[in-house]
């Protein structure tokens, strides 16, 4: 595959160089033809040049077409390969710590950089180098000093100038990014805060601030455009001066009219593929930054280390023991989970309760092997989960994630995600257990869900997610805030159904609502990553403390 890509790349470079050379040949042959024709020789003396001119003109088009076709083919393949490797590096647990929106832009824009690098920088540069060197060789055969002048001019316009534009672009983008962010922020304030701004008569000032931010960006952009134009004009100036110098040297060197014309026009044309390299240099700065960001994603250290030789996964019934678990998200930062121990015996249900940020989701993440504990351990039937393949761990312990996602496909396929082999009967049972059968009867199994699909309420979404989890049927069920963001009535109904269906299932339930928790075996109350209370509901409400306060305020708000 790699060899094939390399061959295609070489082919594209050669086709590009051939197109440039045909352009060079065309001008050289035409120059010879025109100057020689002015001397009015017999027509037969011109026939070879006439044929050559035609052949070069046709060849240039054909070679350019071949170069574009192969060049883009190689570039798109390389881009696809990069995307594929990026996807691979994102599969948990190798998932790097890059946010969703940022990641999306890396997937889309930054992988385009791979294509740009090949099509806009490397291929044109290689083809220009071949064409330029050929022109230098032509110069050598006529008058060596002109070849040296041409070489110097080409290096100036094709290497020094692009390097300078690349450096300038890097500097400018560093200056313009904050100005652009400032303007975007001001405009966002204007749009989102329009009502408040007009209520307090502050609209004019906000408009003036946004205008100033726009002017500041405009000034930077104009200055950047001047630098850009100067760089491009510089290339043309080098081209003209080189040609003039070559003509002077040719005349001083006693080269005839035809030879001088050939030298001058060859030099003129040799610059054609070289001049756009200044703009390519400018582009390269952005491409290099994109490639750096891609490398960052790919080389981000995996969230957890897989064992070299994974232990055999224990078979159910499973007992999960968490002992002195400490998890820190950022080195040197505050631990998110700080010395938590708990046991999930077969068929027992444990609830994790505590304020937001207490570390509840982090414990679930550690159980699912999505984060590496700093110390302490998690054992399933005595086997440390660090010694197990993380996919095996998730096959044993998984469940409802905090933000269940609906795919843009049918209801049936959205459920089958968790049980590809499930027959209709099993699907129907999961839907019944999640108390979704009425909704499914109305909507139909083939209804399209997700964006643009049938609308699904928050409660239905959680029930769909629950049905998925029930279909997957892991020996240990993890439920992360299933009633989050639901109105009270829907949340109560969902929790009641959830507690019914998890009866006798080994379950770890993360929740901030206490209603119904009298039905679980143990409640572990967390604060700042530590266990502050634990016990059964009746026991906890009888003692003063966080749980009783929370229970009382919940009862009060229900009245
Ligand atoms: P809970 O689920 O109880 O709301 P979390 O486990 O989500 O709490 O968070 C516990 C602490 O860890 C919080 O202070 C939170 O800011 C921090 N935290 C959670 N996830 C990350 C992460 N991926 N990177 C850095 N810090 C995190």
TrEMBL record:
<feature type="domain" description="ABC transporter">
    <location>
        <begin position="320"/>
        <end position="553"/>
    </location>
</feature>
<dbReference type="InterPro" id="IPR027417">
    <property type="entry name" value="P-loop_NTPase"/>
</dbReference>
<dbReference type="InterPro" id="IPR017871">
    <property type="entry name" value="ABC_transporter-like_CS"/>
</dbReference>
<keyword id="KW-0067">ATP-binding</keyword>
<dbReference type="InterPro" id="IPR003439">
    <property type="entry name" value="ABC_transporter-like_ATP-bd"/>
</dbReference>
<feature type="transmembrane region" description="Helical">
    <location>
        <begin position="229"/>
        <end position="249"/>
    </location>
</feature>
<keyword id="KW-0812">Transmembrane</keyword>
<dbReference type="InterPro" id="IPR014223">
    <property type="entry name" value="ABC_CydC/D"/>
</dbReference>
<feature type="transmembrane region" description="Helical">
    <location>
        <begin position="255"/>
        <end position="275"/>
    </location>
</feature>
<dbReference type="InterPro" id="IPR036640">
    <property type="entry name" value="ABC1_TM_sf"/>
</dbReference>
<keyword id="KW-1133">Transmembrane helix</keyword>
<feature type="transmembrane region" description="Helical">
    <location>
        <begin position="117"/>
        <end position="142"/>
    </location>
</feature>
<dbReference type="InterPro" id="IPR011527">
    <property type="entry name" value="ABC1_TM_dom"/>
</dbReference>
<protein>
    <submittedName>
        <fullName>Thiol reductant ABC exporter subunit CydC</fullName>
    </submittedName>
</protein>
<keyword id="KW-0547">Nucleotide-binding</keyword>
<feature type="domain" description="ABC transmembrane type-1">
    <location>
        <begin position="12"/>
        <end position="271"/>
    </location>
</feature>
<dbReference type="InterPro" id="IPR039421">
    <property type="entry name" value="Type_1_exporter"/>
</dbReference>
<feature type="transmembrane region" description="Helical">
    <location>
        <begin position="40"/>
        <end position="57"/>
    </location>
</feature>
<feature type="transmembrane region" description="Helical">
    <location>
        <begin position="9"/>
        <end position="34"/>
    </location>
</feature>
<keyword id="KW-0472">Membrane</keyword>
<dbReference type="Pfam" id="PF00664">
    <property type="entry name" value="ABC_membrane"/>
</dbReference>
<dbReference type="Pfam" id="PF00005">
    <property type="entry name" value="ABC_tran"/>
</dbReference>
<dbReference type="InterPro" id="IPR003593">
    <property type="entry name" value="AAA+_ATPase"/>
</dbReference>
<feature type="transmembrane region" description="Helical">
    <location>
        <begin position="148"/>
        <end position="169"/>
    </location>
</feature>
